[in-house]
Design goal:
With 157 residues, the protein is of the alpha/beta class. It has a single domain, classed as Metalloproteases ("zincins"), catalytic domain (Collagenase (Catalytic Domain)), CATH 3.40.390.30. It has five helices and four strands. Strand 1, helix 1 and strand 2 form a beta-alpha-beta unit. Helix 1 packs across helix 4 and helix 3 crosses helix 4. The radius of gyration is 15 Å and the shape is globular.
C-alpha cells in the first residue's frame, strides 16, 4: 500500500504550544488511517474555531464550530495517478475543550479526529447505526495500533 502525501498547515500556533510533535503526530495518524490502495494527497489544516465555524456554516449549513471537517474529493483518477483525496480541517479550541471534558489527552483526541477525518475522505460515514458501528470499529482499531485507548470509552486508560 502506498503512503499518502500529506500537506500539513498549522494556522493556529497554539497547536505548537502543546509541546507535541504536531507534524509527526498528523503524519502517523493519517498513514494508519489511509486504507485507499493507491497514491493520494491529503491536506490537513490545523486552525481555530472562527475558521471552522465559517466553513461549517458555509458548507454544511451548521452555524457553530465543530471539531473536524472533512472535504472529500469524489473524483478519483485511474489507479497509479495521484489523487487529491481532500482536506481535513481541525479547530484547536474545540479539540482542547473536548479532550478536557472527556478526560483524554490532547494528543489522543487530536489523533482520533485525524483518523475520523481520513475515514470520511475514504467515503466512510456515520449517518446510520450500521455505518457508525463500522466507522467506530475502524477508529478503535487504528487508535489501538497507535497505542491509544478506545476513543469511545468514558475515560482514556
Amino acid at each position: 500500500m502506498s503512503k499518502p502525501s500529506i500537506s500539513i498547515r498549522v494556522q493556529d500556533h497554539r497547536f505548537y504550544g502543546r509541546r507535541l510533535p504536531i507534524r509527526a503526530l498528523c503524519q502517523k495518524a493519517i498513514e494508519v488511517a489511509w486504507l485507499y490502495q493507491g497514491v493520494a494527497e491529503i491536506s490537513v489544516v490545523l486552525t481555530d474555531n472562527v475558521t471552522v465555524h465559517a466553513l461549517n456554516r458555509q458548507y454544511r449549513g451548521v452555524d457553530r464550530p465543530t471539531n473536524v471537517l472533512s472535504f472529500e474529493n469524489s473524483l478519483k483518477p485511474p489507479k497509479g495517478i495521484p489523487w487529491a483525496a481532500g482536506d481535513i480541517i481541525i479547530a484547536y479550541e474545540t479539540v482542547r475543550d473536548e479532550a478536557s471534558a472527556q478526560k483524554k489527552t490532547f494528543a489522543a483526541h487530536l489523533t482520533h479526529l485525524l483518523i475520523h477525518g481520513a475515514l470520511h475522505l475514504q467515503g466512510y460515514d456515520h449517518l446510520t447505526d450500521s455505518q457508525a458501528e463500522e466507522m467506530e470499529s475502524l477508529e478503535r482499531d487504528m487508535m489501538h495500533r497507535l497505542g491509544y485507548a478506545n476513543p469511545y470509552s468514558e475515560k482514556e486508560g
